[in-house]
Design goal:
Layout lengths: L1 E9 L7 E9 L2 E7 H4 L3 E10 L1 E6 L16 H12 L4 H17 L2 E8 L3 H9 L2 E8 L4 H14 L8 E7 L7 H8 L5 E5 L3 H9 L19 H7 L7 E5 L5 H9 L3 E4 L1 H6 L7 H7 L2 E4 L12 H16 L7 H15 L17 E5 L11 H6 L7 E6 L2 E5 L6 H15 L10
Parallel strand pairs: 1-4, 5-6, 6-7, 7-8, 9-10, 10-11, 11-12
Antiparallel strand pairs: 1-2, 2-3, 4-13, 13-14, 14-15
Helix pairs in contact: 3-4, 3-15, 5-6, 12-13
């Protein structure tokens, strides 16, 4: 059945903004994009803008209630230690409850697709039940590929009912300091999409090079140092390609930037998380100049404070300008493209989502501009990036189906169940480093 939605502005991303625009939907896909005069008004949203649904290239939905956990700890390794302790205190049902809140908050922020790294698979269940498009990368740790993949296979089977065209499985060898080269190879042989964490902090880089730095006391928990950086290690062994998304990439030299670009590896830029943990700012403009496929990720509320994608887009814009020392380093329109089509490219999904183009999936967000200090007729992308917030998201559609409506979405039970899980995580809390 054909349906038309319209608004003051339509931002296709891959083509110029359309004033008094409209989008026609049919059978879960975009049938046409044009003006209201061409397509009709249909369901009109006054004082609003229609954009492609945001694509979160790196998230951890299962950590939705972790906001403030360990904030301000002096060392990244201590933060990981605290995070690990708390995660071990809750069970499957609680992870599912938390992941539901993460998926709901994503939809409520205009996000229609996530590339989610999942410890136990709960994110797959939540995305399937709430209708959020996802690649759920099941996390893998350790040095023994047989044991690591056996655990992943068990997780994949446990949530078998969640897998579909909407929610697809992937694999995530966590990082070069927590997963051996043999584990990375075994993951690559599965033929699934791959996500990993690379060069997130200077401490990580120091440890991988020679075992030194603040992480040295944690050697018993990590794989042996590689004698090189994570990017170089994976590239040297043929483990960087277009099926891989590398999250963070905060500490890179020019050669590593070129390696990521030349291998077609996706990069998930997470500026709020990296800033919160004192890890630095990824060289976004250098990665773009090299031709890397860069998208935007929120990471998790354990570091960044929320799944607020508008806030992430503002950080993307402002951190790029601060790093470059130029106010024209990155525009709001360029940030919007990074958070939609750019992230879709990073995940290898740009043929299906990321822009408002006839034939693509009807993944759409409708955002209110009512009362915005940013005048949409002057620069509609700035009105979205600098004036947007989850409170302004009116409707989120995935595959043409309404998955979120601001005025009717039921939050109470989701938040109550997640709050119970958070309280259990904080019981008997103590900051004990995981040292031998």
């Amino acid at each position: 059945m054909r349906k038309v939605i319209s608004a003051d502005w339509v931002l296709p991303v891959s083509s110029p903004p359309i004033e008094h625009g409209a989008v026609a939907l049919e059978d879960g896909r975009i049938a046409a994009v044009g003006t209201r005069e061409e397509l009709g008004s249909g369901e009109n949203h006054a004082d609003a803008v229609i954009v492609p649904g945001f694509v979160n290239a790196h998230s951890h939905l299962e950590y939705a209630v972790y906001a403030g956990f360990g904030d301000g700890l002096a060392d990244f390794a201590d933060w990981i230690s605290l995070h690990t302790q708390r995660k071990g205190r809750i069970g499957w049902d609680e992870f599912v409850a938390i992941a539901h809140v993460g998926a709901a908050e994503s939809l409520g922020s205009g996000v229609t697709t996530v590339g989610d790294c999942s410890y136990g698979g709960a994110a797959a269940v939540a995305c399937a039940e709430l209708g959020l498009r996802a690649i759920v990368y099941l996390e893998v740790f350790g040095s023994d590929p047989d044991a690591s993949l056996a655990r992943m296979d068990a997780t994949r089977a446990r949530v078998a009912g969640a897998w579909s065209d909407l929610v697809r499985p992937g694999v995530s060898p966590h990082a070069p300091f927590t997963a051996s080269l043999e584990v990375y190879r075994a993951c690559a042989e599965l033929g699934l999409p791959v996500a990993t964490h690379i060069s997130e902090s200077r401490s990580e880089v120091a440890y991988l090079r020679d075992g030194g730095g603040p992480w040295s006391p944690y050697r018993h928990l990590l794989v042996p140092p590689a004698g090189t950086t994570g990017t170089r290690l994976l590239a040297e062994h043929g483990l960087l390609d277009s099926s891989v998304v590398a999250a963070h990439c905060t500490v890179l030299d020019p050669d590593e930037i070129r390696l990521l670009a030349d291998h077609g590896t996706g990069v998930a830029h997470c500026p709020r998380s990296n800033a919160a943990l004192g890890c630095g700012v990824a060289p976004l403009l250098d990665l773009q100049a090299a031709g890397a496929r860069v998208g935007i990720g929120t990471d998790s509320p354990a570091s960044a404070p929320s799944f607020d994608f508008f806030d992430e887009l503002r950080w993307v814009t402002l951190s790029a300008r601060a790093r470059a020392g130029r106010p024209d380093a990155l525009s709001a329109a360029q940030a919007l493209e990074l958070g939609t089509l750019g992230s879709a490219r990073a995940l290898g999904l740009d043929g299906e989502i990321g822009s408002l183009v006839a034939g693509k999936r009807a993944d759409i967000a409708v955002i209110s501009l009512d009362g915005s200090p940013y005048l949409p007729w002057e620069e509609p992308a700035a009105a979205v990036v600098f004036g947007g917030s989850p409170d302004r998201v009116l409707t989120t559609l995935v595959g043409g189906e309404v998955r979120y409506e601001r005025d009717t979405f039921e939050w109470h039970e989701l938040r109550r169940n997640a709050a119970k899980a958070r309280r259990r995580m904080l019981r008997e809390d103590r900051r004990v480093p995981l040292r031998p």
